[in-house]
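Notes from hallway chat w/ T.B., transcribed later so I don't forget. T.B. wanted the structure written out for a chain they're using in a teaching module, and asked if we could keep both sequence and structure tokens in one place. Agreed to drop them here.
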Amino acid sequence: MATYDENLLLRALPPESARNLAEHLITIDVPSRTELYEPGDTVNRVYFPLDSVISMTAPVGATQGEVATVGQEGMVGLPTVFGTDLANMRFFVQIGGRIAVVPADAFTDLLRTDDALRTVMLRYAHAMFTQIGQSVVCNQRHSLRQRCARWLLMTHDRVPGDQFHLTHEFLAIMLGVRRAGVTVAAGNLQKAGLIRYRRGEITILNRAGLESVSCECYRLVADAYDRLVGHAICKD
């Protein structure tokens, strides 16, 4: 039977729970910009990213702003944990890659009978609520440069290696600002030698320096995942 230990949430499950869930999982390759759910959609599948990154966004006027980022530490499909099948946010693939997928009905059946699975998913939900709440405060209180650094660190934690694809347009959507602001913020980080940004490719050059620029929100959220899910998400 296939294992899915790349996903930290699945890795946190007791062996029997992991085996029961693995019987229903399949792995798919999903390109960037793939839409998973729009608000009002029925949640018919639950997604566990293995090496991909998924964005959860909400409308901000005529644009979108990111609410949370989901990678190998989590899952998409939390409404199923709370007994509903209605998506209330937009979910789309930010960085393409592999995702383990389970039908929602099979997942909810397991939740009803497996206390350990339900407990791990509820703890993850608590961590996700921490991320969402901290993001609200961060967007109100911290500078674009700090928020840009935080978002780059969060993405870096969720991808293999130090490089990932990202355009100014996409980063502007994630931060809920205009492209011009992103150009200035990313340019400052590059001039400081913290990142390299060429033709839509971000390379993290100095992670410690990037953390020193980021606000405290990054560590608060990362520590919540470590404490609640049981595996450190931060890269060294």
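Follow-up for T.B.: The two ends are 31 Å apart (CA to CA). Might be a good example for the class.
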